[in-house]
Amino acid sequence: MTARAMTARVNGAGGSMMELWAGVECTVNRVGDRYRDQLALGGHAERDDDLDRLAALGVTALRQPVLWERVAPQGLARADWAWVDRRLERLRALGVRPIVTLLHHGSGPRDTSLLDTSLPERLAEFAHAVASRHPWVEDWTPINEPLTTARFSALYGLWYPHARDDRSFARARC
Questions:
Q1: 73-102 pLDDT per residue, tens
Q2: Is 86:93 a contact under the CB 8 Å cutoff?
Q3: For a 10 Å CB count at each end of the chain, is N or C smaller?
Q4: What is the pLDDT of residues 55-78, one digit of tens each?
């Protein structure tokens, strides 16, 4: 069934249309001093044509990673926007609405963590930079699953900063 036929089929009496949303696994989590970048490991980081394939399936919205630790690992002054700009503009050309994710089971660049008191302000600065660069983006996921991220990072100790106590879990800034 084509996307056009599917649209005609799901339009209800109220005129609302069902949408098909998608996303790729984009976690960049830190274990010790090693980062595990799922965009790279899964190959999506290198395959720009994945976006065309998703659009061809009828996807109308895509959770698009614009991850702080990938874009600005050494600060906003040294940010590399090339991948993000290319991907967001391609989604725009395809008519696929991006839902931009800034942190996805991560804690940002190496010089910060969920226990860093400056994390909220620094993440806000990054969010402002992304929004200023792409003002047409309307949908955002600033932090994906903050409770899960806090548990794995500040209660179970599996992800950076590897804390394992209630106080750290309560202080996690996500």
A1: 999 999 999 999 999 999 999 999 999 999
A2: no
A3: N
A4: 999 999 999 999 999 999 999 999
Looking at this protein, which amino acid is placed at residue 152? F
Collapsing DSSP states into helix, strand and coil, what is residue 100?
A: strand
The pTM for the full model equals 0.86
Q: What are phi and psi of 173, to 5 degrees?
A: -95, 65
Question: How many other CB atoms are there within 10 angstroms of residue 169's CB atom?
Answer: 18
Residues 6+ apart with CB under 8 A from 113: 107, 119, 153, 160, 161
* Tokens linked to 150: 């806090």
Q: Report the interhelical angle of 119-133 vs 82-94 (nearest 10°).
A: 50
Summarize the confidence of residues 155-166 as an average pLDDT.
Answer: 95
Whose tokens are 């874009």? That residue is: 71
**How far does Cα 11 stand from its chain's mean position?**
30
